[in-house]
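Chapter summary example.
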Amino acid sequence: MTMTVQVVSPERILWSGEAEMVTARTIEGGDISFQTGHAPFVGALQMGRVTIRPADADPIVFAVHGGFVEVSNDEVSVLSDVSEAADQIDVERAQAALAVAKAALAEDPFDPSAADAVRRAEVRLDGDAWRRVHDVRKAEGRTWLVVDTDAPPTVGAPIGCRIDGQRRLAL
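The structure predicted for these 171 residues follows.
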């Protein structure tokens, strides 16, 4: 079963379609996934990745810089002033923005706008990195669950072999 999903910015609808699951990071509760039949929900989004998993297609990832997610009657709306599909991220521009932001933060470690600029650039680069890792896994003909080694361990989290500094579990 699928639900209707939209990713919307003030200018236009960035993506619309049917999906089995949507995962986003909220300010109130961390990462949360929505599937068909989910209870109504409204939450504020943190800067981070939103992953949409269509029924018969590869996952679609957006770098989202805040906003809201609303779930009701098997419809999910992601509303964000700034969001960018992972396959449309200009990596060189994001890397340049990160360098400028880090330099500004080095000059004034208490500058909240510089800290926000660093986080925005990192979110964009994270979205692109996720897309590239997915492309490699797809080319290998395998599915891998990649666990971030910088994240604290989760109770019951699967641990696989270490490859390239990441824990991976073949699925």
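To summarize the output: Helices lie at 91-107, 112-140.
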